[in-house]
Amino acid sequence: MALSLEEYAAHDGLTGARACASGEMTVSGGVCSLQRQVIAVNKRWVLLLAALLSCAPLAAAEKAMLAGGCFWCMEADFEKLAGVTNVVSGFTGGTLPNPTYNGNHAGHYEAVEITYDPAKVSYKQLLEHYWVNIDPFDAHGQFCDKGHSYLSAIFVANETQRKIAEESRQRVVAQFPNEKVVTPILDAKTFYPIKGSEVGHQDFYKNNPVRYKAYRWGCGRDARLKAIWGERATR
Q1: Dist. CA 91–CA 108, nearest whole Å
Q2: pLDDT score at 40
Q3: Which one of the listed residues 20, 70, 144, 219 is annotated catalytic?
Q4: What domains sit in the chain, N to C, each tagged with a CATH number?
C-alpha cells in the first residue's frame, strides 16, 4: 500500500518503521527508503559498538577471604594496601547461617572479604601482607582476643589460591624453624558480612579512631607484630 507523508506521520511509528523495513509498505517521497537507510546505519553502529566492547579489557576484580583476629584491625591493615578496592568485615568458616557478633557465631571466624585488582596487587602479595599483620603461632586466638572466632586462617576459593597459599605458608615455616605455624589453609565457605544493627563494626577504625587506637594499643597487637616481624610489620 502507498501512504502520503501526512498519513505516514500519523501512522504508529513502530509499526510504520517495521513495515518500511520489511518492504510491506511504500511511502511517497522516498520516506521508506530513507527509513531503511537509517535502520541499516543504526545496525552498523550497534555491530561496531559490540565489537569494541568485546575487545575492551574487563576490570576483573578478584576476592580473598582471610581471618586474622579482630576484623576492625584486619580491615584497617588491608584498606591501606595499594590495589585493594574494598574490605568487608564479617564471619565465615562455620555452618551456622547468619551469624551475628553479639549473638550466635559459634564455629565461625571473624574475617574480612577483600576485593582487589590483580593488575595492581597479586594474591601472593596479599598473603605476604597478611602474614606480617598476624601472629601465625597463636593457637588460641590473636593477641589479646582469645577463642575460636579470633583464630587466624586463610580461606581459599580454588586450587590456584590453594597452591599460592601453601607456598606462602611454607616460606613462613622455613623462616621460623623453631616455631610452629598454626594458621591453617581452609576451603572457602559462605561469607556473612556484618549487617543490621551491628553494621557499626564496618569501618570502625575510620568512624571511631580514638576508640580503635586505644583498643589496638591495649591489645598489644603492634608490639607483638614488631616482635615477630621486625621492620616488616606494617602499622
Answers
A1: 6
A2: 52
A3: 70
A4: 2-55 (no CATH), 62-232 (3.30.1060.10)
